[in-house]
Design brief:
- The protein is an alpha/beta fold.
- The chain folds into two domains: about 250 residues, 3-Layer(aba) Sandwich (Rossmann fold), CATH 3.40.50; about 30 residues.
- Helices cover about 45% and strands about 15% of the residues.
- The chain contains 13 helices and seven strands.
- It has a seven-stranded mixed β-sheet, sandwiched between helices.
- The longest helix has about 30 residues.
- The structure holds adenosine-5'-triphosphate and magnesium ion.
Length: about 280
């Protein structure tokens, strides 16, 4: 049964899409089956995965407005195990058209019901607003992941976001929880970054992830090449941090990961030894 996580913060440019693409990629590379839903008319998660927004025939718009079959929307990506519901500017119309639709807050949830057994995680990349598209995401989600940029106005608007989460919990989706808060674009050369990190930790306490994503030029470049950071520059610090973050979200600690690698390596060595032995036996016979 898939866990559905909405990446949400109504503030623009805080790293929602970058986190959605790279978390989805590292989860998929770890062997999980992933669906990424681009519910933002900007279509940045779509283009960031190398898909031409203008070529899309069926998008999240058709899912929400025409009740299209979700499988007719779904497309594969360059990342194995990662499927996408793409979007483009057409989706802007959906926000208006949904206003008069019956069950308008639950359209996405309804559409996903038949897909939950096909995936381990469904990630939803929300637009920078708290309109009906975001409400659809929060209605469909089990949890909300909040990226926060390490900048002066980081906390501004967060009480509005928390209010919206509480309203959704009271009226639409009582089981919605905050998955966690991810600090992004940290620049440790400035005193401000540490101040913001401390402020955010005071506000969200243990919900803040230990992994912090640094400001890194390779992350800013990657969408222009339509690639996740794992494919664009897997040795960059940004790639390492998004992989660390993915493991943190999965509850895998670094030490455990090393142990797991050692166990896997030993198994691999054992298998090789067995193979060598049986080859040897074969030769003797
Ligand atoms: P929007 O609210 O418009 O949807 P967003 O919250 O999805 O924005 P992103 O699109 O992920 O934010 O990031 C905003 C810009 O910052 C993009 O150009 C992205 O490439 C860049 N960016 C994101 N994270 C980093 C980072 N850690 N280092 C450098 N640049 C980054
Ligand atoms: Mg975005």
């Amino acid at each position: 049964m898939a866990k559905v996580i909405a990446l949400c913060n109504q503030k623009g440019g805080v790293g929602k899409t970058t986190t959605a693409i790279n978390l989805a990629t590292y989860l998929a590379l770890s062997g999980k089956k992933i669906l990424l839903i681009d519910i933002d008319p900007q279509g940045n998660a779509t283009s960031g995965l190398g898909i031409n927004k203008h070529d899309i025939k069926h998008s999240v718009y058709h899912l929400l407005i025409d009740d299209a079959d979700p499988r007719s929307i779904m497309i594969g990506t360059q990342v194995p195990n990662l499927s996408l519901f793409p979007s483009n500017l057409n989706l802007t119309g959906a926000e208006v058209e949904l206003v008069s639709a019956i069950g308008r807050e639950h359209k996405l949830k309804k559409a996903l019901a038949g897909l939950l057994n096909d995936f381990d995680f469904i990630l939803i990349d929300c637009p920078p607003s708290l309109g009906l598209l975001t409400i659809n995401a929060l209605s469909a989600a089990n949890s909300i992941l909040i990226p926060i940029q390490c900048e002066y106005y980081a906390l501004e608007g967060l009480s509005q976001l928390v209010n919206t989460i509480n309203l959704v919990k009271e009226n639409i989706n009582p089981s919605l929880v905050v998955e966690g808060v991810l600090l992004t674009m940290a620049d440790y050369r400035t005193k401000l970054t540490n101040e913001v990190i401390n402020e955010v930790k005071k506000f969200f306490n243990e919900k803040v992830y230990t992994t912090v994503i640094p400001r890194n030029i390779r992350l800013a470049e990657a969408p222009g090449f339509g690639k996740p950071i794992a494919m664009y520059d897997k040795n960059s610090i940004a790639a390492q941090k998004y992989e660390d973050f993915t493991n943190e979200l999965l509850g895998i600690k670094k030490a455990e990961k090393t142990e797991q690698n050692i166990v896997e390596q030993n198994q691999h060595n054992d298998n090789n030894a067995n193979e060598l032995e049986s080859i040897g036996e074969g030769e003797i016979k």
